[in-house]
Amino acid sequence: MKIDRRSFLSFAIGGAAGTALTPLPWKLTDDMSIWSQMWPWTPVPARGAVTVVKSACTLCPGGCGINVRKVDDRVVKIEGLPDHPVNDGSLCTLGLAGAQLLYGPRRVKTPLKKVNGRFVAISWEDALAEVSEKLSDLRAKGGAHTVACISSSDRGTVAELLARFLRVFGSPNFIRMPSSQDAYEVALYLTQGVRAIPGFDVEHSDFVLSFGSGLLDGWGSPVYLFKAHSQWRDQGGKLIQVEPRLSRTAAKADQWVPINPGTEGALALGIAGVIIKESLYDEKFVNSHSSGFQEWKRLVIDGFSPEIVSKVTGVKVTVITELARSFARANRPLATGGRGKGTSPGSLKEVLAVHFLNALVGNLGQKGGSWAVPEPEYIDWPELEMEQAASTGNQQTRIDGAGSDIYTHARYLANRLPEALLTDPGYQPVQVLFISEANPAYSLPDTTAFKDAVAKIPMKVSFSSYLDETAELADLVLPNHTYLERYEDVPAPSGYPLPIISLVRPVVEPKFNSMHTGDAVIQLAKALGGSISKAFPWDSYEECLEETLGDKWESLMEQGYWVDSEYEAPGWSEAFETASEKFEFTSREISALGNYSLVKPEGDEAFFPLVLIPFDTMRLWSGYVGSPPFLIKSVEDTLLQKNEVLVEIHAATADSLGLGSGSTAVLTTPKGKARVKIRTTEGIMPGLIALPRGLGHTANDRFLAGKGVNYNRLAGPVEDGATGHDAAWGIRARLAKA
Amino acid sequence: MSTVDEQSKAASGMDEGHIPQGVEEKKQDGSSATIILFFVFGFIASLIVGWVVFPKLLYSSRPQPVEFNHLVHNEMVDEGCESCHFFREDGSYSGVPTLAQCIDCHEEVQGDSEAEEYFVTEYVQRYREVPWLVYSRQPPCVFFPHSAHVLKAGMDCVTCHGSIGESESLRPYEQNRISRYSRDIWGHNIAGISRNSWDRMKMDDCAECHQRENVNQASVQTKRGGCFVCHH
For a Cys staple, B140 with which of A44, A191, A338, A351, CB 3.0–4.6 Å? Predict the structure, then answer.
């Protein structure tokens, strides 16, 4: 027998024939097709018992209720809480992506201490001991007032605990991060005599005149606004957007009124002038419930005729008169102020101009109008026992100057911090700085100045759950639980017209070695002893919260929120607590602040011929919480391409600079420079450059850091003459080919 | 030109003529037997590979992490399978029990079996969930609700799971190395032949019953069975 090539062929043919009679080919085919459906990297839902926990979202000031879906102990989905008065089952993209802030890589896992410029893990015991030793040392040396705290909010128990700690310790330096509420609060106080929160019943309005408010870009309580917008659509309501750029809100509005940036207040006064001239205002309100109308009327009619206003604003005279007529003749007109998401205070005179429009049409405290929502009053803790050191400390001038002779009306002036810290002679005015739920090193204008200023503070303590830009500057990071791991009260959603409190509650056990900031404060107070310890009679934050909320606790635990649904704004005869007991168009105090004038952007026009303005979008967040990875993924390529940000400029402006769409340019402002890509559009006033807020992080996680440019690195504050708040709406800039 | 062609034809004819006719035939006879033999070799070898070697190679096999006697447990409980494999309040099915259920009785070591001691010290006392290997788990692309089958259609556990409730030990878990499925889905018979309703759980087996019972058979897409009854 000779084995040759044919034998092998025969063997193979026999093998093939035999194989066809076995299950092998059919089974392999089946297995391989199934293998292609079972890629190991395809995410598969976890198995286990499904539960849903009612809680509240703290990621923006919107105060939405949430339903958190869990499989066993794992959060898998966050949805809106049905029937919650603010968001009724809906939720925004940031809220939906919240689980990534619990499980994502930006968490601080344990207390950290900076040693030789690097963070090392330390125990809670050591970390708190270090802070309390420094504090008692400072206090003994008479430096109690050199402790400061920056917080995103001054409402709710956590912020109040921090403020109480500072007060009883002996420091007046509790500072709230800036927002359009700052200017609104002063406006409400000056005109109505009330310490209140601005609220807007947009839901029931049928004609909203928005002076740059990004009503659909995250202004106020975003989901509440989205729902209101759908309601207008169904019921024939109108939205007019006054803004230099075709924002998403402008695109969805019934009318977009392009305007020269920073002149919105002038337009509001121009519209007021037409309403007065044509006697279209609410006579009952103006005649019986207001004071100072005649003087103000003269100012408006003389100084802000449609012709003058048209020249300043770039809005045609016919448009101004048309707007005035349709606004005043609408059933329930409402004017809103605060640019974009309302993260910057803006000029008081501008806010007043907008507020006066609401007064003219008599919508104050009315359905669909502008409301002064009372400050929440449920936090009623025992009186403080003030030791000598505490009283002396609290009498010192605040580091930011708020409430001083120069800045009488301001309560907080975070924008003045860098200046105060950098120019102070001789001694260091802040020895210890606490930062809670805020990221000023990213969110305050002129971040470089803030970083330089903070570097001078000997001890910076961050309570951040995330390693953000400010936490990176800190000497100690005492990580708070995330909002899905803790209890907290969320009062007064931004811009919402009714008094409401929502309850944040732990959805899962804390994942890492974090501690509730409320508990950290209570423990610090106990360590300091004496009257400080006595001011915090609770064993834990949870005990403090339950006791504080009292009879509301049960409803909060059951429903997830408590709302004063019976609340009705007081009638015009009782609403105003001014000297005249009326709404004041002018008063001695208001007149003392000077007339309306335009806020000029910083920079020399000859050197910086263009103006850089920021804009907001729902897909990018620029407050304490930076956009989670899901949101970054959703950013459109008209804003971000790979890691490069696109700036919008008018096609004609681009032509004159010789810049084509898609080309790279260097953007320079008095504060810094950055490489940007050009996107030309017709949807912006010529001479402007628009840059989205919320990019250009250097910290947090690799999904967020290193993408685009932070507007606040290129911008700086412009002090409002009336209040000291940051009134800047942009900054002068230059674009050159890269 | 034509002359050259003719010449070359003649030359090739002459070449063929040189090979002796008889030798060629003899060689073919001898080699055809060999060829058939090799064919048979190949045929038989492939049958052995296909029916015997291939199933052994295709599946990996590992024991369950902990020994378990269904029979003993079944005798001690009141509600049969549902005592441990129960439906939650929301109608979802709890599946394989978690430590929380075992711990009621097994907080301390019971009896003197080594397996029991191992279970209590390794899992119960350390609060570690037992990573049970589930024989009948359908792949992630299938949505299989027990509630629809047991609570609504009133099917028995045995229909799909056989007599596992009477077993005294757990057989090794076999997993397909390619598809990553449990072997129970295709069935233990490599040819895919099933004698009992619990022998296989492939899509055809589901479809057979779904068609018979007319479960959402009016799909717009397929004009027959609805894909999305089971698939996401």
Answer: A44
Q: What is the pLDDT of residue B29?
A: 56
- Predicted confidence at residue A426, as pLDDT, reads 67
Q: Flag whether B48 is in a domain.
A: yes
Burial class (CB in 10 A: 0-12, 13-18, 19+), A302: exposed
Non-local (6+) Cβ contacts of A93 within 8 A are A618, A619, A630, A631, A634
Query: Which residue in A3, A13, A37 is closest to B42 by CB distance?
Result: A13
The answer to whether position B43 is within a domain reads yes
Cα distances from A356 to residues A273, A302, A369, A537, in angstroms, run 11, 17, 12, 46
Q: Do A22 and B51 touch (CB under 8 A)?
A: yes
pLDDT at B227: 83
How far apart (Å, rounded) are the C-alpha atoms in residues A404 and A409? 8
B-chain residues within 8 Å CB-CB of A29?
Answer: none
CATH node for A196-375+568-592: 3.40.228.10
Long-range contacts (CB closer than 8 Å, 24 or more residues apart) made by A657-666:
A657/A735, A657/A736, A657/A737, A658/A737, A659/A735, A659/A737, A663/A737, A663/A738, A664/A737, A664/A738, A665/A735, A665/A736, A665/A737, A665/A738, A666/A735, A666/A736, A666/A737, A666/A738
A387: left (phi over 0), alpha (psi -120 to 50) or beta: beta
The shortest C-alpha distance from A175 to chain B (Å) reads 46
B53-104 tens-digit pLDDT: 999 999 999 999 999 999 999 999 999 999 999 999 888 999 999 998 899 8
CB contact under 8 A, A14 and B41: yes
Answer CATH for A112-176+395-491+506-559 from 3.40.50.740, 3.30.1130.10, 3.40.30.120, 3.40.50.2000: 3.40.50.740
In whole angstroms, what is the distance from residue A480 CA to residue A515 CA? 5
Burial annotation A178-196 (CB, 10 A radius, 16+ → b, else e): bbbbbbbbbbbbbbbbbeb
* DSSP assigned state of A673: E
- What pLDDT is attached to residue A117? 94
Interface ipTM? 0.81
Q: Are A452 and A431 in contact (CB under 8 A)?
A: no
Beta strand spans in A642-722 (E): 644-650, 664-669, 672-681, 688-692
For residue B180, give the chain A residue with the closest CA: A35
Contacts of A442 (CB under 8 A, 6+ apart): A468, A469, A470, A622, A626, A697, A699, A710, A712
Give the nearest partner residue to A31 out of B38, B49, B179, using CB atoms.
Answer: B179
Contact A175, A724 (CB under 8 A): no
The shortest C-alpha distance from A55 to chain B (Å) reads: 20
- Which residues of chain A are modeled with pLDDT < 70? 1, 424-426
pLDDT, tens digit, 9 for 90 and up, residues A298-308: 999 999 999 99
User: Quick check: A1 contacting B, CB < 8 Å?
Assistant: yes
Which amino acid is residue B37, in one-letter code?
A: L
Residue B15 in this model has a pLDDT that exceeds 60: no
Cβ atoms of residues A209 and A242 within 8 Å: yes
DSSP output for B173-231: EEEETTT--BHHHH-SSTT---SSTTS--SHHHHHHHHHHTT-S---TTTSSS-GGGTB
Å between A546 CA and nearest CA of chain B: 30
Contacts of A44 in chain B (CB under 8 A): 140
Q: State the Cα–Cα distance between residues A192 and A584, nearest whole angstrom.
A: 7
Nearest to A50 among B39, B92, B95 (CB): B92
- Taking a contact as any Cβ pair under 8 Å apart, which residues of chain B between 63 and 82 contact chain A? none
- Phi and psi at residue A569, to the nearest 5°: -60, 140
Q: Which residue of B has its CA nearest to A39?
A: B179
Instruction: Say how many domains are in chain B.
Output: 1
